[in-house]
Amino acid sequence: MKKHAITGLLVLIFAASGGAKLAALPFEIEAFTRWGYPLWFMYLTGALETLGALGLLMPVLSRLAASGLALLMLGAIATHWQHQEWPMLIVATAIGALAAWRAHLGWREAKVDAARNAD
Fold it and tell me: Is the pTM of this model over 0.85?
């Protein structure tokens, strides 16, 4: 149950965040401009977040999606650190840690399944 709750929360977070970037909502454009990133990077980030959210919903892809999203959040963490956006740094770190934990659960489960199938 814990894995499903974490997955659901991550799907909501990344679908909303990715969707906001793909929709080019003003606050996203302002943020990427303030950080000095080109708008194509905002769309790329939004696409990766959205695809990651979809991947979390597919059992065969969920651990890879969680791993990719955790890595993606390293960029967000670095950006918020560089621009001294401390509240958002905390949020990004928490989301990144949650994605990493979800990835860990998925890889651990795959290892157990592989051991069972080897018997």
Answer: yes
Contact 21, 28 (CB under 8 A): yes
75 within 8 A of 95, measured Cβ to Cβ: no
Reference 21, options 10, 7, 37, 5; nearest CA is 37
Distance between CA atoms of 48 and 15, rounded to whole angstroms?
Answer: 10
What is the Rg, in whole angstroms, of the alpha carbon atoms belonging to the chain?
16
Kindly give the confidence (pLDDT) of every residue in the chain, 119 residues in length, as a single tens digit, with 9 standing for 90 and above. Answer: 689 999 999 999 999 999 999 999 999 999 999 999 999 999 999 999 999 999 999 999 999 999 999 999 999 999 999 999 999 999 999 999 999 999 999 999 988 888 888 86
Cα separation, 63 vs 100, in Å, equals 9
Phi, psi of 46 (to 5 degrees): -60, -40
